[in-house]
């Protein structure tokens, strides 16, 4: 990291762009280099810890699968519990489900029916915000259980896909470390 570089700029510089994956024309933003380097991972987690260390969060909810990585570390650092939000059919106990639209069809995510209680303050986290469908479904799931979703957080925003706008319009405040223009 250069002396005059902000943490957000450094984190953005460490994200790998993979052209034409998973399909032609898509510029995939790969966060695995952030996870690979222990100092970069520490800096990334510290950015989130600094933002939320004064909040009274009871839980951090992470969205399958990269949100599990970030969310569990962050929950530990903030002395909060962790709630996994999984793809449908992956949780072993009674669940609550929420469907959301994809570009071609729909999908669903679930949480355990006893994941949290009414009034619990929850941070929702994932690796990136693209169309916003998964994070919006996660917000709705938590709210079905009565949780107070204090904010949605992600490393990357892809603003031209409209997800961050959709989430804000749905009443979810967002914290996004960096953004990339272009798919």
Q: Round the mean pLDDT to the nearest integer and report it.
A: 95
Order of strands in the sheet with most strands: 5-6-4-3-7-8-9
**In percent, how helical is the residue content?**
25-40%
State the end-to-end distance: 26 Å
CATH 2nd-level architecture of the domain at 54-179: 3-Layer(aba) Sandwich
Please tally the β strands and state the result. 9
Report the biggest beta sheet as strand number plus sense, adding barrel if it closes. 7 strands, mixed
Shape: globular
Weakly predicted, low-confidence segments: none
Per DSSP, the total helix count is 6
Rounded radius of gyration (Å): 16 Å
CATH class annotation of the domain at 54-179: Alpha Beta
Q: What multimeric state do the chains show?
A: single chain
- Listing every helix as H and every strand as E from the N terminus to the C terminus, the arrangement reads HEEHHEHEEEEHEHE
β-sheet strand percentage: 25-35%
Q: Classify the secondary structure makeup into a structural class.
A: alpha/beta
**CATH fold descriptor of the domain at 54-179:** Rossmann fold
Provide a brief overview of the structure.
The chain has helices spanning 7-13, 32-36, 38-52, 66-77, 133-144, 163-169; strands spanning 16-19, 27-30, 59-63, 81-87, 95-102, 105-112, 121-129, 148-157, 174-179. It is of the alpha/beta class and 183 residues long. The protein has a domain at 54-179: Rossmann fold, CATH 3.40.50.
């Amino acid at each position: 990291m250069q002396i005059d570089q902000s943490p957000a700029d450094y984190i953005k510089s460490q994200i790998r762009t993979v052209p034409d994956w998973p399909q032609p024309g898509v510029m995939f933003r790969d966060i695995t280099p952030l996870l690979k380097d222990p100092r970069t991972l520490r800096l990334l987690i510290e950015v989130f810890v600094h933002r939320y260390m004064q909040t009274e969060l009871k839980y951090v909810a992470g969205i399958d699968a990269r949100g599990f990585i970030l969310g569990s570390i962050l929950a530990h650092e903030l002395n909060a519990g962790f709630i996994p939000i999984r793809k449908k059919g992956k949780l072993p106990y009674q669940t609550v489900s929420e469907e959301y639209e994809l570009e071609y069809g729909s999908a669903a995510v679930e949480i355990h029916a006893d994941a949290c209680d009414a009034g619990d303050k929850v941070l929702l986290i994932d690796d990136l915000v693209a169309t916003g469908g998964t994070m919006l479904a996660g917000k709705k799931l938590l709210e079905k259980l009565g949780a107070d979703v204090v904010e949605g957080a992600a490393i990357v925003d892809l603003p031209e896909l409209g997800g961050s706008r959709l989430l804000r319009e749905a009443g979810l405040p967002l914290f996004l470390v960096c953004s990339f223009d272009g798919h």
